[in-house]
Amino acid sequence: xxxxxxxxxxxxxxxxxxxxxxxxxxxxxxxxxxxxxxxxxxxxxxxxxxxxxxxxxxxxxxxxxxxxxxxxxxxxxxxxxxxxxxxxxxxxxxxxxxxxxxxxxxxxxxxxxxxxxxxxxxxxxxxxxxxxxxxxxxxxxxxxxxxxxxxxxxxxxxxxxxxxxxxxxxxxxxxxxxxxxxxxxxxxxxxxxxxxxxxxxxxxxxxxxxxxxxxxxxxxxxxxxxxxxxxxxxxxxx
Length: 238
Known about the structure:
By secondary structure, the chain is mostly helical. It has one domain (26-230). Helix content is 72%, strand content 2%. It has eleven helices and two strands, in the order E-H-H-H-H-H-H-H-H-H-H-H-E. A two-stranded antiparallel sheet has the order 1-2. The chain is globular and about 55 Å long.
């Protein structure tokens, strides 16, 4: 059911979000995320395909330069998230991919903070596995592998919305990670389910080789955008 334009904003006023949000559905429906992602993907097929080609070229150029890995790729990632949000909302453009460079300092520091936080959590979950490999101890390595799988399934998916919060709400990287974790607490199992289904979508695409894998990756990414909009809504018009 669509929200009445005369209804009060549904944002949690105690959430600490810097912008008033409207249209949040208060829950995360995996079926809705998939159907909305599927529709947005095929509705924007030529646009995202062209944008993906440009992104790959820009990515390669950044890697070749060396310094671009640190100083360009995070900002390109910011623009890719903006493109995904606009593709869901309507009005996406190729120029969205480079929109982070117009606010370079803010976009770079926020995305680097987000990447650093994700890396720390991932390494913490993988530390026992790394230790087992280093000391060549199979039982320790096995326990570490199980622990890393648990972190990958139960922790990292709940931090995924942070990248969207950075772009959509102009939040800093660490604040966005904290907000993503807090906001997903009531629906953590739905978020984990969203992660599992999004991975299965990519696997299904792989079964039909590259022809299916590329749109499958887009559908998978757009499922997270749909989930984000369901939980957080949209910024109120200023």
